UniProtKB/TrEMBL annotation, chains A, B, C, D:
PANTHER family: 6-PHOSPHO-BETA-GLUCOSIDASE, 6-PHOSPHO-BETA-GLUCOSIDASE-RELATED. Keywords: Cobalt, Glycosidase, Hydrolase, Iron, Manganese, Metal-binding, NAD, Nickel. Mn(2+) binds at residues 171, 201. Residues 196-407 form the Glycosyl hydrolase family 4 C-terminal domain. It comes from Paenibacillus methanolicus. Substrate binds at residues 96, 150. This is 6-phospho-beta-glucosidase. CDD domains: GH4_P_beta_glucosidase.
Length: 436, 436, 436, 436
């Protein structure tokens, strides 16, 4: 009925864009895209032009009738879109650097998606995303918003609670695990069943079956694990893993091995700067490659960037939504009645059946007692931080920071909060209205 | 119909006993006690005889027809009892000393009712209490068990889940707050309304009304607080308190001011030893007093002991149960559907109407978002520790210790657990079956 | 602090008014009323003047400094009131006559508070009550609204869901049962404990204890029951009652003995007309009595009117709210989490502790499986009818009527609905906007 | 890994058997059956031999290596089975005749799966099914039990609550609706999405989308409906259907058009006897056909029998369980947290994703208020009747009968119960232990 799809990628100047473009080209038979709009802000114009040029060359090479549009006009891109995806970094890598650096200065984990760093990222990002939602509500109310922007769970929850936009949060960790299991057991994804319990960047894998055989005990026993490139490898304690009875997400190392992870961060910081600074260098190199007018495909170096499978996750999800595919994907959606200890509107990371009308969260068949405390503790922080982001209320921000399990006390929270808000003030108009 | 009540006090040799005896004498018109049995174990025979002697002299002085019985035969005491109360210390103050001392050695809060110390106390105590429950089920199935034994919330939950005994957990903190408010506002308790949210030793006071006037804002603003003698006084941060919007229990300082409290503990430890050692001295002096054959009343020095109002709380509760009084008391009971994020069988500290058939938990009218994370995190630890206590499963014990919010990592948990189990092995037959 | 209370009685011209006036006089020591406003509509002016005259003579006789004001100006009465009570009959007894008569014509129970008749009463009444609530929100936002107007459960639910007024629904059936038990067992109310499960006019008494002794089995076995004057006496089946295990409200006879009750109605209708017509005669006689200028007290004949204890229920409730009495009363309030199969905002009839800040619903300790179906079925009807009343949506009205358990089919529902809406059109502006 | 599947069909002598045999033959590529055991009781030996002979000829004709075994030894059939399916009729069609006839005699709907008739069927059937479950628990604890035996919802709930067998209830109504929509819109099932709310034989279809287009409004507007052969065709009222906003199951006519359906039954009874008697004739003719030694395929006449698609439903389910297919099917399973007004262990009819580890109930996205009352009312009856079946408690049976929405009063319930229990006494050992 529709004559091809319109897709808007907000933050289109990102170094990840070639990956998603490649995904669209490969899946064109199921996702007939007519227009692909890459949007960015003025400050990102140069990167948008570079990466947009590559995107155009890739499409031309494919011979497909997809029109690639580059724009700074977000509303034009959103108007009538079928899918909007976001991959933004308010404050750029510079802001991330401070998210990671400042907590370290007070003996606290510095991480871009959780802890005080993640909270700052949430405060910067949520109001911008909600502005985008206002545009979608007006200009493409039936669009699906696929949110990759971190902290993806918090951002998605803010959108769900404060807008009418149909939104789904996405992370590459679940698909990464599936790929890893697929390789490990030499089995197609259809033969593997995994179940997740928890939140974005705070999940436990509670079931792993390959061809119906329970593989969890052996994975725990051998301490084999899938880990992202952005989290340092540290070995789990065997006794702990066996009695936990579930595979913890590699992000959980920040909680379960706080001491070792902090030490690792401090050493690494002294040696090569924050992770943001490392990433900055990788990105600069990528953009140099992208400028090559002879490059007509995604360069292999992109895979080292850390966000592997993001594109595949996005394209899979669009495919299932567009084609009412009813397959199971692990997504960030409203809890509903899935976890009985969280509110219905809390965003969780959970297996969903993706139908044409959206994802339906599957019931979880096993929730280890162990997981409940951390999930609730982090969700409490998240909800307080979302409220703070929406209102600019400093008291709420202090409550959020204090109640994060990685923050040891009110006094540390207060010191960090003051320092970090100040450092981010350009990006926090709700907290600094005079800067608007 | 009954010709007077039979009461069994288990741990009757405690230094607190004169307080409860005084309570019984004062409230005789509403609680017509026929027999008061003080029970203790062989190791406590001497203390039982001393304090039992005082109890007899106090009753004689009152002229009331209460028969005081001293015994080492627990079953005889329990048989046909209307009320059984417990105030025990498995392992005595010596065990408490290590509960406080060992965590400090690893930079962790050492406290007798929470953290690794509280967990050890739970592991030692729960199996003993459940043995007592077996006796009650057999010998006085309609008795009410009033449990003062710490950690009172965990012990009560274990009883509720693993026995059929009708049991209620009691703490002196809520009644202490009421007394403090009563004095402060010069108002009888009937004119004051307070509401509690949380667990034993982990509650927030979310409403304070005196003659219908909301006094919470001014209490928060002036940072006025009620504090027990056993927790060092440290001032709350004003901004934190105002944005919290509730009065935190003084036990919450261990969580919100972990750094300062730990420092205080280390200094105090260096200076005067653990709190257990301080208490030991006070107790020795009390027993010296009790021995005086001319002493026929509760000595004033007992009030400095820390457990103020315990007796009043107990006598109030018995009165309401016996007389179907239907007044409101703050008790430790099964959650039911009170807090929607906890299981029905989780023990919480909450306002109850005390009827002749037992307490009915009142709905809580306000649950600040802030409180949920810590409540769930501590409840997760509690439930894992209860399971560990029941089974002697070391893996579960490691899970419990690791998931306590005051424990920073798996590795610290493991080290502490090994050390502390070893130190307590005489009192942990479930973990060391060969020691049975 | 306040210098006496202001009370507004809406529908002050009711024949019941002398009862509530008597209640205020008797309880003046606890409820220091300064002004008592009796309000009515123009059509009720004559009755208001008659009953108001009696009220003034009663107060004068008492010597108390209560000022009795008669008015047609509802807003003046509401302004600054501490309590507003309503006892209205939109459409007067004439409308009730048809509520009872028309269903009978189609072989359906005709009853003023349930079934098609009750539904019509709800459709007439709810919009008027919500108009009153708008006035209260504006003119006395802290007032308590005590709603006696039937169907009290539905009206209270509509107020709770569609206004911000603090409202409580009241019925005389629970207090009537208590009085009956009190006489039967020669015991003061404090010695009796009863527990109710269900909705207004649809409850089951699931616990009856006198001095702690369970009296429910003997009440069921002897088929002894409390019954209102407005419901014909028909005996319960013994086997049914014993296996039900709870005392059904006498209103439940319309459901459990539909056939016999209908037959009784048809015979009674043929003989003496509807209950409305019987009541009309009683009322006419009462107003003749009230006119006597020498009458200075509530005449005894009022007690035969059927609404016994309404006044006592009202005065008890005001006393507990004003004095933060914290006693247990059976009231109609929002479900919250009390019954796990009903929504939080559904109005139920349940034991509450009445504090100065309002009633807190007590948990129910026993919900017989048997009760759930009827409660949900009637609540479904109620919620559909409330929606219909608010919107004037005829489709919703058909759904409500069809889903009432006393209505046998869609076709009967449709016929009855058309007939009854037409007969009530003067009082249904939402359904007949042109009549406004 | 397994070398072919073993399947046991209990009630294998049923006239439906050729259909399921045909299904197994067609789906052999996905369901590699090694052994197919047809089991029946001694009284059904002749039918088993006839239909078993046909089954053997059908398999021989297919050339597949499936071994067909006929037996009276249930335990041998169950031992080591991968799937057990049940299609039983305790008391045969003779009992069904009285289920339909006796209620009619008292002006009550007579129906084999609901009302007093359905209740009798449940009382006869549940204990027999639980006996089978004891065998499965012992002899093939990992088998899936597919229950087609009516009342399928109640039987499945009884199994779920009182045994450890992994069991799923199946009905042909949902698949029938899907087939009907498929034909009507000329669309493969993958392009159609339907959502069901309710219980077995008491569901509402709340969503119908074809290629993503909502077709529910037009289906309601045109009053187009799918209806089974066993329920007489009667037209829905247009206004009712439009305001209901969902397609009611054709079984709901017994509730919504009680008067018309009863009249139809009485007329039909006078003319041609009960439905049971009609079915008896059809069956006799089928068995005549089956005896023909030249018949090697399912005869077309079987399709008129009423149970269309049962076989397809069964084979689909086995395929998805065996192959971890993860498609959506509408099944009868435990509620879990799907419908918030029913207990977790209540059996509901709901969309499920069928994984290799069993079905996971999908959340329902819309529950019309209208449906809740009837669902709860019928579930209340069901749970009381299940309890009665398990215990033989006559009081519970009276409660169940009285609380069924099709039964007008306690007195009718009591009369019917006495009559019907007496008529069924040979099949009710729990109620008549001396008959055992």
């Amino acid at each position: 009925m529709t004559k091809g799809l319109k897709i808007a990628v907000i933050g289109g100047g990102s170094s990840y864009t070639p990956e998603i473009v490649e995904g669209f080209i490969r899946r064109y038979d199921r996702l007939p895209i007519r227009e692909l709009w890459l949007v960015d802000i003025e400050a990102g114009r140069q990167k948008l032009e570079i990466v947009g040029g590559l995107a155009k060359r890739m499409v031309a090479e494919s011979g497909l009738p997809i029109e690639v549009r580059l724009t700074m006009d977000r509303r034009a891109a959103i108007e009538g879109a079928d899918f909007v995806s976001t991959q933004m970094r308010v404050g750029l890598l510079e802001a991330r650097k401070w998210d990671e650096h400042l907590p370290n200065g007070h003996g606290v984990i510095g991480q871009e998606t959780t802890g005080p760093g993640g909270m700052m990222k949430a405060l910067r990002t949520i109001p911008v995303l909600l502005d985008i939602c206002r545009d979608i509500e007006e200009l493409s109310p039936n669009a699906w918003l696929l949110n990759f922007t971190n902290p993806a769970g918090m951002v998605t929850e803010a959108i769900t609670r404060y807008s009418k936009v149909r939104s789904i949060g996405l992370c590459n960790a679940p698909i990464g695990l599936q790929k890893w299991l697929s390789t490990k057991y030499d089995a197609t994804p259809e033969r593997i069943y995994t179940e997740f319990v928890g939140l974005n960047h705070l999940h436990w894998v509670t079931r792993v079956e390959v061809d119906g055989v329970n593989r969890l005990p052996e994975l725990l026993d051998k301490r084999e694990e899938y880990s992202g490139k952005n989290v340092p490898a540290t070995e789990w304690d065997h006794e702990f893993l066996m009695s936990l009875g579930a595979l913890p997400s590699y992000y959980l190392k920040y909680f379960y091995m706080q001491d070792a992870m902090l030490e690792e961060q401090l050493i690494s910081l002294a040696k090569s700067g924050t992770r943001a600074e490392v990433v900055k260098k990788v990105e600069d190199e990528l953009f140099k490659l992208y400028q090559d007018p002879d490059l007509k495909e995604k360069p292999k170096q992109l895979e080292q960037r850390g966000g592997a499978y993001y594109s595949e996750a996005a394209v899979n999800l669009m495919d299932s939504l567009y084609n009412d595919k009813r397959d199971i994907q692990t997504l960030n959606v409203a809890n509903g009645r899935t976890l009985d200890f969280l509110p219905a509107d809390a965003c969780i990371e959970v297996n969903c059946v993706v139908t044409g009308q959206g994802p339906l969260a599957l019931p979880v068949t096993r929730v280890p007692e162990q997981t409940k405390g951390l999930i609730q503790a982090v969700k409490t922080y998240e909800r307080l931080a979302i409220e703070a982001a929406m209102t600019g209320d400093r008291g709420l921000a202090l409550q959020a920071m204090t109640h994060h399990p990685l923050v040891p006390s009110v006094s540390v929270a207060k010191t960090l909060l003051n320092e970090m808000l100040e450092k981010n003030k350009l990006y926090l108009p709700n907290f600094y209205p005079s800067n608007r």
